[in-house]
Each structure stands twice: as structure tokens, then as C-alpha cells.
Amino acid sequence: MEVRNVKVTEVGPRDGFQSERTILNTEDKIEIINNLIDAGFPRIEVSSFVSPKAIPQLADAAEVLEKAKRNKNTTLAALVPNARGAIRAVASKIDEIVVFLSASESHNKKNVNRSVQESLIGFREIVKIAGDNNVPIQGDIATAFGCPFEGNVSPKKLGEISKEYKIMGFKGVTLGDTTGMATPTVVTDAVNTIRDMVPDFEITLHFHNTRGIGLANVMTGLNLGITDYESCFGGMGGCPFAPNATGNICSEDLIYLLHEMGIETGIDLDKLITIAKKVENLVGHKLPGQVMRAGKRLLSYSMDDVPTAIGA
Ligand code: COA
Ligand code: ZN
Predict the structure, then answer these.
(1) How far apart are CA 264 and CA 22, in angstroms?
(2) Between 20 and 30 A from 113 (CA), which of 104, 122, 189, 307?
(3) Spatial CB neighbours of 7, under 8 Å, sequence gap ≥ 6
(4) Which residue from 61, 44, 64, 42 is spatially nearest to 52, judged by alpha carbons?
(5) In a structure prediction context, what are the per-residue pLDDT tens digits for the chain, which is 312 residues long?
(6) Integer Cα distance of 282 and 198 in angstroms
(7) CA separation (Å) from 22 to 65, 189, 264?
(8) Ligand 1: does its nearest atom lie under 6 Å from the Cβ of 82?
(9) Residue 263 exposure: Cα atoms within 13 Å on the Cβ side
């Protein structure tokens, strides 16, 4: 199952900006989203229609969507937790709704203040609103590879939730590694179990680099034939309702890796590096991305710029 093309979703305007203490101004967010569209991303998570008390950083979702550029090659998606969010999202002409729950009860309670079963029941209202407006739905599962409160998550649980998602007519399931607990072994078990329990259902992988093995997990996904990944410019990101949540895998580092392997993404890496540097300036602190600092591998320097080591 050799992968030749990969679809990368940029989650920075949602996962990245929600994790910043400073609230970015709306005009800057819109400019970054427009730059991402121009860089060729096929899908961008632009914001969340959640409670502004839960995530004040994304309270301007409607304005962001009203003013962001639209392009037929880029799907603009946003997180929706309940019917209220779905009504706001369709009013903003969102291209795709992303519903989310956590595989573990304790994180679901922290994140959306309800049980997993209550979340699934609540999704039915969202399905109705989205269906009436012809908006497709993607289903996320947070803490899919482990929960900071409960530990291991059973792959069977992921399969059961994915089955519900398929029955509700969702496009596919995204497995979110909220606190970076995925490892190649855990990812392989999760993907194989979901494929066994729910055949023909698209799986997207969303890793965080909390323990430094985010791209190793992507390599595992590629070996399993997974073609859909989510990442964030500069390696920002993290859930405010999980302990020690740190950044997503970095979009520039991921795209650099894929292109070096001859895998196409349709994304302009040079433009993306410029965006990551712009975001770094906006947030005012160093981001963990590495390619944005080092440049591509064949970037060459003048010998005059580097001192020569001379023995004393
Ligand atoms: N959009 C805007 N406001 C919303 C809303 C939505 N989708 N859903 C609820 N609210 C408002 C309600 O109107 C209410 O406001 P009020 O206090 O002024 O009356 C308040 O939020 C609480 O509403 P309630 O229905 O009681 O929700 P809750 O307190 O049980 O919280 C969620 C549930 C899901 C709304 C909230 O936990 C949430 O938004 N979580 C999102 C977390 C997240 O995005 N995490 C990061 C992504 S992994
Ligand atoms: Zn994330």
C-alpha cells in the first residue's frame, strides 16, 4: 500500500490559536487563513463554534468565516459541540462541520461537560441541521491513543465510536492524540481494529509531538496506507482541558518529510515557512517548528559567512 499522495489539513487557526494565552486579532487570523489557502492546503480547520466561555480565543468564528477567502480547492472546516454551534456554523456557510468527543469519559467530561453517550446522542441534532443545509460532517475522537486521566484507551472503543459515526453518515473519523500518547504500536492497533470493525471508513490521523515521536507515528500511518493527516504551522497547538498538552506535529516539518519521500501534497512549502514565521511574530514567542528555522536541506550558504577552525 504505497502512499503517493497525502491530504494535509492545517489545524493552526483552530488547534494552534486556541492554545495561545493571547487572543489574536481577527484581521490577523483572516490574513493567515487566506495565506494558507494560497499555499495550497486542501482543508483548513478555521475555528470552533464552541462556547466563548470555554474557548475565548475563538469567539470570533463567525467573523473569521464571513471574511475569509473562499476557494473551491480548499475546504474550510470548524469544530461544533452542539446544536447551537451547528446553527452558528451553517449560518456562517461552513464547508464542513467537525464534531468531537473523547474516547475516555473523564476527558469528555472536562472538554464538553457530558458523557460519551450524551455526546453521541447530541450529535443527532447536529446531523439534522447539517443535513438540512447539505453540510458534510467529520467525526473526531480526542484522547484516541491514551487519556491523561485514565491511561490506555481500548482500540475496540474507537471501533465502536467509529461505527456510530459511519451509521450517522459522517465522512470519516479523525483520531486525535490530544496529549501525545500515541506510539507506533498503539497507532497500528487502533487503525487495524477500526478497519476490522468498520470497513471502508476513512481514517485521518491527528498527532501531537508531546513526546517527540509525532513524525514516527506518521511513518507508521503511511506504512498502514493512511493518506490523511492533520498538523499545525510552527508546531503550535494543544487542548486547554488536558494536562501538559503541547503542540501538534508541525506542518512544515511534516510536509518537508513527505516531499523528501516523493509524496505529493499540493502545498507550497516555501509559502508555508513564511506563514509559520509570520505566526511566530504574531504570537511573540518561539515556536517549536524545525524546518522553519533550518530551511530545506539543499539550502546552501556562503563559506564566507562561517568562521574556519584554526588550530592554536
Ligand atoms: N456557541 C456559543 N455559545 C454556546 C454554545 C455554542 N456552541 N454552546 C453553549 N453556549 C453557551 C450557552 O449559551 C451558555 O451561555 P450562558 O451561560 O451565557 O447562558 C453557556 O455557553 C453554557 O452552555 P451549556 O449548554 O450549559 O454548556 P456547558 O456549560 O455544559 O458546556 C460546551 C458545554 C460543549 C458548550 C462547552 O464545554 C464547550 O464549548 N466546549 C468546547 C471545548 C473545546 O473546544 N475544546 C478544545 C477542542 S478539543
Ligand atoms: Zn490537536
Answers:
(1) 35
(2) 189
(3) 42, 43, 227, 228, 229, 265
(4) 61
(5) 799 999 999 999 999 999 999 899 999 999 999 999 999 999 999 999 999 999 999 999 999 999 999 999 999 999 999 999 999 999 999 999 999 999 999 999 999 999 999 999 999 999 999 999 999 999 999 999 999 999 999 999 999 999 999 999 999 999 999 999 999 999 999 999 999 999 999 999 999 999 999 999 999 999 999 999 999 999 999 998 999 889 999 999 999 999 999 999 999 999 999 999 999 999 999 999 999 999 999 988 999 999 999 987
(6) 42
(7) 20, 38, 35
(8) yes
(9) 22
Q: Write the CB contacts of 6 (distance below 8 Å, at least 6 apart in sequence).
A: 222, 227, 228, 229, 258, 263, 264, 265
As given in the structure block, the three cell numbers for residue 50 are 464552541
Which single residue is written with the C-alpha cell 483552530? 14
Handedness of CA 7, 73, 28, 272 (dihedral sign): positive
For residue 219, with 0-12 CB atoms within 10 Å meaning exposed, 13-18 middle and 19 or more buried, which class applies?
Answer: middle
Query: Ligand 1 pocket test: which of 47, 51, 108, 140 has the largest number of ligand atoms within 8 Å of its C-beta?
Result: 51
Q: Grid coordinates representing 166?
A: 459511519
Instruction: Please indicate, yes or no, whether the overall pTM of this predicted structure exceeds 0.90.
Output: yes
**Rounded Cα gap, residues 294 and 290, in angstroms:** 6
Q: How far apart are CA 157 and CA 238, in angstroms?
A: 23
73 vs 41: CA distance, rounded Å: 8
Domains annotated for the chain, with CATH where assigned, are 7-305 (3.20.20.70)
Q: In ligand 1, which atom is closest to the CA atom of 80?
A: 7
Q: Provide the residues around ligand 2 (an ion) whose CB is within 5 A.
A: 15
Q: Tell me if 49 CB under 6 Å of ligand 1.
A: yes
